[in-house]
């Protein structure tokens, strides 16, 4: 059975050193049934560059935090 992937833009979410990082407008191929996201190698390289160079964010958001207890 062949997997059908949809080309779209997603928000990539990462927690690094206790900080939640969101990167919007990331090109990805997404499985519409599972929601699994696939990124091209050059996209992964760009994501790493954005995160590790710690450049100034374009904006900030507030996020509620819940504990799973």
Q: End-to-end span in angstroms?
A: 40 Å
Shape: globular
Q: Number of DSSP strands?
A: 3
* Order of helix and strand elements from N to C terminus: EEEH
* Most strands sheet: 3 strands, antiparallel
Helical residue percent? Answer: 10-25%
Radius of gyration of CA atoms, rounded to a whole number? 14 Å
Mean pLDDT equals 93
The chain-level structural class is alpha+beta
**So how many helices?**
1
Beta-strand percent range: 35-45%
Strand ordering within the main sheet: 1-2-3
| Poorly predicted segments | none
What does the model show?
This protein is α+β, with helices and mostly antiparallel strands and 69 residues long. It has a domain at 6-53. The protein has one helix and three strands. It has one helix at residues 41-52; strands at residues 6-16, 19-30, 37-38. Strands 1-2-3 form a three-stranded antiparallel sheet, with helices on one face. A hairpin with a 6-residue loop joins strand 2 and strand 3 (37-38). The radius of gyration is 14 Å and the shape is globular. The mean pLDDT is 93. This is YgiT-type zinc finger protein. It comes from Bellilinea caldifistulae.
């Amino acid at each position: 059975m062949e997997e059908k992937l949809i080309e779209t833009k997603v928000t990539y979410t990462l927690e690094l050193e206790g900080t939640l990082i969101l990167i919007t407008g990331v090109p990805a191929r997404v499985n519409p049934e599972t929601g699994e996201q696939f990124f091209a190698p050059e996209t992964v390289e760009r994501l790493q560059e954005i995160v590790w160079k710690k450049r100034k964010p374009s904006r900030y958001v507030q996020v509620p935090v819940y504990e799973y207890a």
